[in-house]
Amino acid sequence: MVRRYELPKKGTGKISVSPSAKASDPARINGQTFLEITFHGKYRGDVLYKYLPYVESKAYQMRSENRVLMVYTNSSNFRWEKTTLIHPSTFETMAMSINLKRSVLDDINLFIRRKEFYKKVGKAWKRGYLLYGPPGTGKSSLVAAIANYLSFDIYDLQLTGVQDDSSLKKLLLGTKNASILLLEDIDRSLPIQTNPKGGELSLAGLLNCNDGIWSSCGEERIIIFTTNHKETLDLALLRPGRMDVHIHMGYCCFEAFVTLASNYLGLDEDALQRLFPEVKRLISKDVITPAEVAEELMKSEIVEVAMGNLVKVLESRSSVSEDDRGR
Asked: Where are the transmembrane segments (predicted)?
């Protein structure tokens, strides 16, 4: 709905126009319906600066809850092609430690509510996250959980499909506000040239788009890099202002396992401790990823069978790990 607020003359307390069923009525313009609010003049400040902003924020929340999220991928002709995002990942179902989950949520919430702060300090309203760790630790699922939590579309940028710095710039200018720009496996998605020849994608081009034109042409944007090998990345990619928060996605800890056991088998922590007390000791040795745990739990609908198979895997991994340490 297009917002039109005709500010009242002092003392009248009248705002905007009323709804109408007639297309020819001034209250309807291009099929849009406008509303009239009448109130006592002494409440003018409350209506303009409290009530209307509240209505607007609630309308935004309702639109976000009902909107269909999209994933955009760059095509060979330097355009974005979209498909519906159908990924059920949420922060409730994410297999992460409680403290890590809470810190990520706190940072996201702080970022979202600080639009005026970013404006006041002269910074682009964007936030960068680096997700790093072994394969199968939930990096892609965390991206989906963030998108679902914020109702943000995802722009999945495939650098292998970008010809040069100019093409990258055009793609980034085609992204919308309130979105996530995702570069997965940044360490191996493209051997970015530090000193490129003409017509090549360069590290400088990627950094300049992130720092400059992409930042200045939009707001409320999140950029996420994922990598299995943080140590191989150029330090220029990692500094604050580009990747503001570095999130280590590690092997499955007991808190993450409790979430997985609840998701897949309906077991709570008390039941796990009572029925399978050895799991806590075995899983604390950093020998299995959340994806591998989930795969074992999916092999049987019978709790005893699924958990028995998982215990065998954990015992096998633990013995191998101890042998390696003894060498």
From this structure: none
